[in-house]
Automatic annotation (TrEMBL):
InterPro entries the UniProt entry points to: AAA+_ATPase (IPR003593), ABC_SmlMolc_Importer (IPR050093), ABC_transporter-like_ATP-bd (IPR003439), ABC_transporter-like_CS (IPR017871), P-loop_NTPase (IPR027417)
Residue span, ABC transporter domain: 24-254
Region of interest: Disordered: 1-22
EC number per UniProt: 7.6.2.9
SUPFAM superfamilies in the record: P-loop containing nucleoside triphosphate hydrolases (SSF52540)
UniProt source species: Actinopolyspora mzabensis
Listed Pfam families: ABC_tran (PF00005)
SMART domains: AAA (SM00382)
Keyword Iron applies: no
Domain of life of the source: Bacteria
Record GO terms (molecular function): ABC-type quaternary ammonium compound transporting activity; ATP binding; ATP hydrolysis activity
Swiss-Prot/TrEMBL keywords: ATP-binding, Nucleotide-binding, Transport
Name under which the protein is recorded: ABC-type quaternary amine transporter
EC class name: translocase
Length: 370
C-alpha cells in the first residue's frame, strides 16, 4: 500500500516479508448470535491495493462481517488474517484498520482540523508535520480551507469527508467503510462516491466497503461480493454480476423483478415472452432469464402488431426522467406475475390499454446454473 501520508509511515511489515498478494483473508468465517447465524462459512480474499464491496439486502450480515474484521465481533468459527498474520488475539486498536461508518461519529467539541489531528496525535506525529498533513488530507477529500469550521456546522456530506480524512490520518493498512454514504441524498452520494473512489485508487488503499447500493459498490470497488442470508452467493466483477448472476437471488437483488425459464438452442434463447440472442458462453438447454424493467419494451398494440408477439395490458405507469415505467399483465399467461416494462415518452399507452411486448437483451440477465 502506498501511504497517504508519504513514505515511512505505514504500520505494515516490510515488503520483503509479505506474499505479493497478501492482504485480508477470511476463511470459513461464521458468526452466530444465540440462535441466529449472521455469517455462514464465508471465504474472502482482498489483496493489498484492492477494494472489495460487500453488497446485500438488509440483515444479510454485512455489518457483522465488517465488525468481525475490525475485531468488534468475535467469530464463532473460522479465521481472519491480514498479511498472513492471524488476528484472533489482536485487539481492535492493534489491527491498524481505519473505519468510517454511516454516521461519521466526529468529535462534536473539536473543529474540523481537531478531528483529523486527533488521529495524527494518536500516532505521535510531531506538531508541524501534523499541521501540514491535516491541510493535505482536507484537500484530498475536497475540504481545503475548512480547518476552523465547527463540525456541528457541516452538511452530512462534509461531515463524511472529515470522517474519511480522519480515518486516512490514522494511516490504516485496511479501510473499513460501513455504508459511508447512505445518510446522504442521491446527488451528493454520487458526487462523494466518485471522490472517494479517486482517493482509494490514488492511494492504492486496501478496503472493504459495505453497502446495499449496487451503483455505490460498482463505483468504489474492484470486485463485489453479494451476500444473501449470511452466505456469499457470488464474488465477481460488476459486468458478470449484472449480466451473469450466479443465482436467482443475486439476479433479483440486482433488479430482475422477473425470472423466467428459458431454453438455449442454436443462436437464440427462447422464453415465454420471446427470444434473445444466445451469448457465446451460454450452454445449450435449460437456463433462466432475469428481466429488469428495461428488458421489456412496451408499445401500444396497433392493428399491425405481428401475430405471436406477446400482448399485455397496462395496469400502472410512472414517469421517469427519459422514459415511462409500466406495470403490465399478460392475459394469455395468467400464471405470470405482473411485469415491469418501459416505454418511450413519445407514445405513452393509457391505463388498461393493450400493448405489445418486445424483449430488450441489454435489460436481461442470464442465469446458467440450474
Ligand atoms: N448483536 C446482535 N445480537 C443478535 N443478533 C444480531 C446482532 N447483530 C446482528 N444480528 C442479527 O444478525 C443478522 C445480520 O445482521 P447485520 O447487522 O450484520 O446485517 P446487515 O446486512 O448489516 O443489515 P443492514 O443492511 O440492515 O444494516 C441479522 O439477522 C441481525 O438481526
Amino acid at each position: 500500500m502506498r501511504s497517504v501520508l508519504g513514505s515511512g509511515e505505514t504500520a505494515t511489515a516490510p515488503e520483503s516479508h509479505r506474499e505479493p498478494d497478501d492482504g485480508l483473508r477470511l476463511e470459513g468465517l461464521t458468526v452466530r448470535y444465540g440462535g441466529t447465524t449472521a455469517l455462514s462459512d464465508v471465504d474472502l480474499h482482498v489483496p493489498r491495493g484492492q477494494v472489495l464491496a460487500v453488497l446485500g439486502p438488509s440483515g444479510c450480515g454485512k455489518t457483522t462481517l465488517l465488525r468481525s474484521v475490525a475485531g468488534l465481533e468475535r467469530p464463532s468459527e473460522g479465521r481472519i488474517a491480514f498479511d498472513g498474520v492471524e488476528l484472533s488475539e489482536v485487539p481492535v486498536h492493534r489491527r491498524g484498520f481505519g473505519m468510517v461508518f454511516q454516521e461519521g461519529q466526529l468529535f462534536g467539541h473539536r473543529d474540523v482540523a481537531g478531528n483529523v489531528d486527533f488521529a495524527l496525535r494518536m500516532r505521535s506525529v510531531g506538531r508541524s508535520e501534523r499541521r501540514d498533513t491535516v491541510t493535505r488530507l482536507l484537500e484530498l477529500v475536497g475540504l481545503g480551507g475548512y480547518q476552523d469550521r465547527r463540525v456541528t456546522e457541516l452538511s452530512g456530506g462534509q461531515a463524511q469527508r472529515v470522517a474519511l480524512a480522519r480515518a486516512l490520518a490514522a494511516d490504516p493498512r485496511l479501510l473499513l467503510l460501513d455504508e459511508p454514504l447512505s445518510g446522504l441524498d442521491r446527488r451528493l452520494r454520487e458526487r462523494l462516491a466518485v471522490d472517494l473512489a479517486r482517493v482509494l485508487d490514488r492511494n492504492r488503499m486496501t478496503g472493504v466497503l459495505v453497502t446495499h447500493d449496487h451503483d455505490e459498490a460498482f463505483t468504489l470497488a474492484d470486485r463485489t461480493a453479494v451476500l444473501v442470508a449470511g452466505r456469499i452467493e457470488q464474488l465477481d466483477t460488476p459486468w458478470r454480476l449484472w449480466h451473469r448472476p450466479a443465482t436467482e437471488e443475486v439476479a433479483r437483488f440486482l433488479g430482475c423483478g422477473t425470472v423466467l425459464p428459458g431454453h438455449a438452442e442454436d443462436e437464440t434463447i427462447r422464453c415465454e415472452l420471446g427470444t434473445v440472442p444466445r451469448p457465446a458462453d451460454c450452454p445449450s438447454g435449460t437456463v433462466r432469464i432475469g428481466l429488469r424493467a428495461a428488458g421489456l419494451r412496451a408499445a401500444p398494440a396497433g392493428e399491425e402488431a405481428p401475430i405471436g408477439q406477446p400482448r399485455a395490458v397496462v395496469r400502472e405507469r410512472v414517469h421517469r426522467q427519459d422514459h415511462v415505467r409500466l406495470t403490465v399483465t399478460v392475459p394469455d399467461a395468467p400464471g405470470l406475475a405482473p411485469l415491469e416494462a418501459v416505454t418511450s415518452l413519445d407514445d405513452v399507452p393509457h391505463l388498461d390499454e393493450e400493448v405489445t411486448l418486445t424483449l430488450e437483451p441489454s435489460g436481461t440477465a442470464l442465469i446458467t446454473e440450474t
